[in-house]
Amino acid sequence: MPIKITSLSDPSGLNTPGGKAAFYVCHVLPEWLASVTLFADNIRKTFGTGLVGDYRFRDETEKEKKSRLARVARRREKEALNGVVELVEKK
Predict the structure, then answer these.
(1) Is residue 18 part of a domain?
(2) Which conformational region is residue 88 in: left (phi greater than 0), alpha (psi within -120 to 50 degrees), or beta?
(3) Whether the Cβ atoms of residue 60 and residue 48 lie closer than 8 Å to each other
(4) pLDDT for 27-85, tens place per residue?
(5) Phi and psi (nearest 5°) for 22?
(6) Residues 63, 45 share a domain
(7) Residue 79 sits in which domain range?
(8) Contact present, 32 and 38 (Cβ < 8 Å)
(9) Could you tell me if residue 37 is inside a domain?
(10) Which residue, 1, 22, 79, 91, shows the most beta carbons closer than 10 Å to its own?
(11) What is the Cβ-side half-sphere exposure of residue 66, based on CA atoms within 13 angstroms?
């Protein structure tokens, strides 16, 4: 801030501390707005993508989605039962 701009032809508005602050605010504000916009929302949750993005070539039909969800539910039930069996065997 202590550096002054010298000009022989006309005075500069960036010589005052207020002018310099306004200059930096106007140049940094768009970067902050872009960062807030990018990090404010959970994009994976919003668009339903995984860790590496959307790996499917086309959208699922309702029938395919129900089938996939049923497989996931069966797998989770099986894993839960395996966990219970392991606990019983340890006792």
Answers:
(1) yes
(2) alpha
(3) no
(4) 999 999 999 988 888 877 787 777 776 677 788 889 999 999 999 999 999 888 887 66
(5) -65, -40
(6) no
(7) 59-91
(8) no
(9) yes
(10) 22
(11) 3
Position 81 scores a pLDDT of 83
Which are the contacts of 17, defined by CB distance < 8 A and separation ≥ 6?
1
Q: Tell me: do 44 and 67 sit in the same domain.
A: no
| DSSP 8-class letter at 51 | T
The answer to whether residue 3 sits within a structural domain is no
81 residue type, one letter:
L
Strand-pair partners of 53: 50
13-39 burial string, b = 16+ CB within 10 Å, else e?
A: eeeeeeebeeeeeeeeeeeeeeeeeee
Structure confidence at residue 7 (pLDDT): 65
